[in-house]
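Write out the 3D structure for:
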Amino acid sequence: MSVLAEAPEAIAAATAAQPAARLALAAAASAPSHAYLLAGPPGSGKRAAARALAAELLAEGAPDPQEARRRALADPSPHPDLAWIRPPGTQHLVEEVRERVIALAAFRPFEGERRVFVIEAADAMAEESQNALLKTLEEPAPFAHLILISAEPEALLETVRSRCRAVRFARLAPEAVEARVRDLLAGRGQEVAPPEELRAVARLADGDPERAVFLLLAEGRALREAAEACVLAAAAGAPTGTARRAIVEASDAAGERAAAELRALAESAAEREAGDEREARRRSREAEEGAKRSGRRARTESLDLALGLIAALLRDLAAIGEHAPELALNADRVERLVEAGEIDPRRARRAAELVMDTRRRLRVNVGEELALEALLFRLEYLLAA
C-alpha cells in the first residue's frame, strides 16, 4: 500500500487536490518533526491541512484518540493542547506570540503526549516576533510542535524558514476550484450557480475557492458588475465615475465590516476574561488598533480584487480581439464584451499591464482612490483612442 493511501483520513481529505503535500503530511503524522512551514497560495488548503496534522499529533498518546481528533478538528477548537494564533489585523501582536506560543511551549501537555501551536499567516509576524520565536524553534521541548502557515514565506526570516520542515502547496486548477465551490455551497445549503458563471468565477478566483464563493454572492457579483462597467465605459470613451464610486463604496463596506467583526470578537473575549481595569484598557486599545488595521487591510484587498477583475476583463478583450473568445476568463460575459466592439489586442494588453502596475502600487500605501481614478483615465485614453 502506498504512503498516499495510508494517509490519515483527515489529512487525506484536507489534501485531496495536493498529492505532494499529502505525502509530506502523512510522513509527518507518523514521524513528526518539531516545526513545519505550510507554504502556498491562498485557498490551496493549507489551513485545513494544518488542522488535520494537529489533530493527528494530538491523538498520539491521548486517552481517547478519536475524541482528541474530533476536538482538534473543530474550529474554534476546545482542545487544551492546541493553540491557534491568527493576526488580529495586518500583523500579529508581539505579546500574543510571546504569551500564547513561546511561554506555553515550555509547559507539559494537559492530556496526551504533545502540544501543538499553529501560527496562521505567519508572514504577518513582525521581525521582533520572529526573532522572539527563534529560541523556541531552535530548542523546542520534546512534546511541542509548531505549524506555521504562510502564503508569502519569503516574508519570513531565513533563520525561521530554515528551522521548519517545508510542505509546499500548489495553486489549485480551475477545475479543482469549481469542484470545491460546489462542495462549499452544498455544505452551506446554497444553490449552485449556473454552469457558465461557476466556470467563470473558478477561473477568476486565482486558485482560491473562498474567493470564488465570494464572487457568487451578491457583494461579489456587484463588484464584478462595477469592474465590467469601468472597462466598458473606458472602451466607449464614456465617464467611469459611477462605476468607480461603486468600487470604492464596496471596498469601504468591506473595510467597515471587517473592523466591526474584529471589534465584536474583542468585546466577546473581554466579557469572558476578567482582569484589572488597566489591563482591560490596554486590551481595548489593542483591539481598536487591530480593528482599524483589519479594516484597512480588507478595504485594500477589496480594491485589489476589483483591479484583478478589471485586468481579467481586459485580458478577455485582448482574446476576443485575437478572435479567441473561448479563452476568455469571464466565460459568462463573452457576449457583452463582444458587443463592446473590437479592441486592438495590443492596447487591451497594455491596459491590463497598467492595472497590474496599479495593484503593485497599492501595496506601498499610495492614495488608493486617486490611483484608481488615474488608472481609469489612462484606460480610457488607451482603449477609446
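The beta strands are 35-39, 82-85, 115-119, 144-150, 165-168.
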